[in-house]
Amino acid sequence: MTEVDWSKPLTPELEALMKLKYEDENPTAGAEAYKMDGNHEFKKKKYDIAIDNYTEGIKLRCPDKLLNAVLYTNRAAAQFHRGNYGTSLHDCIFARKFKSDHMKAILRGATCCLKLKRYDEASRWCDTENENEEFLQMKYKAESLKKSLERDKRKEEAAERKERIEEEKLLAVIQSKGVQLASMKTNKNTRLHPSLLTNLETQNPSGAKVHVTSDGSLNWPVLFMYPEHTMTDYVEAFNEQHTFEEHLKVMFSDGFEHPQWDTDRKYTTDKLLVYFEDRDNEVMYKVNPKSTLLNVLQHKRHFVHGGTPCYVVTVDGSNYQKVFKERHKIINT
């Protein structure tokens, strides 16, 4: 005999036979038939079809309370195997409305609560007059998991508090040096607000952030932009006491590997011009290469965006530099 493929539409003949099977004046018999078919599909792990059968049985509203409890409990099991723990729990609740001490409904409901990390509820599900060993084990597991979750939460909160304290100390150091973060236009007497910490978050994939060194100075992640070639260089730790000239020599001196994109080798340290942008006033400030990073960061119109100071580099006397000067208002620092 060929097995029916329930995932496909039924033939008219088979559909008529199915109607005869379930069209019984006795709703209990019909619900029982749906339950048996659902169990058959459940064993084959065809949970969607099993759910449909249990649902049809429930719709018949038969007067047999135990059968209704079984239908809801079995549907809960099928939903559970599909990963629908909330829906499964809902069916367990309904099953107990028909039979409050239905053991399978109680165990399934408690298990759903564990999956949903609702450990207090799981423990309450096991509070029955039945001193069943499975109930006791489930209750013990729920209470153990609850303690573990609370312990992990305390550790996480402690770690967050420690991190917040360290970040607030860092902000205080930055402020004490006269460095301004974007959206942090304050004076030394202004109280720091935790929301300012977001201004230290860098978007660079390396995750480099400004940090205090052992001697109390700051190392900043710095971005150099070369708009003529739409290229960038990222320095993960530019110490505030180092000059721009020191870093540019490392990047463009003959003793080091030259960038491949500078095919004309125009970018030499004696010809490089460095600027930072005042976004509010749309002004470019020219930086003295012999200045330290801290000197530049302390400029009254310099604001750090995204936790990373950014500088534009061009070549003096180049065609692009002429265009650059025409497009921007430039002020010497």
Automatic annotation (TrEMBL):
One Pfam match: Wheel
Transmembrane segment boundaries: none
GO CC terms, sorted: cytosol; nucleus
UniProt organism field: Mytilus galloprovincialis
GO terms classed as biological process: protein folding
Protein name: Cns1/TTC4 wheel domain-containing protein
Keywords assigned by UniProt, alphabetized: Coiled coil, Repeat, TPR repeat
GO molecular function, one term: Hsp90 protein binding
Domain (Cns1/TTC4 wheel) ranges: 216-303
Coiled coil segments of this chain: 142-169
InterPro entries, per database record: Csn1/TTC4_wheel, TPR-like_helical_dom_sf
SUPFAM superfamilies, per the entry: TPR-like
Record carries keyword Coiled coil: yes
Entry keyword annotation includes Electron transport: no
Gene3D superfamilies: Tetratricopeptide repeat domain
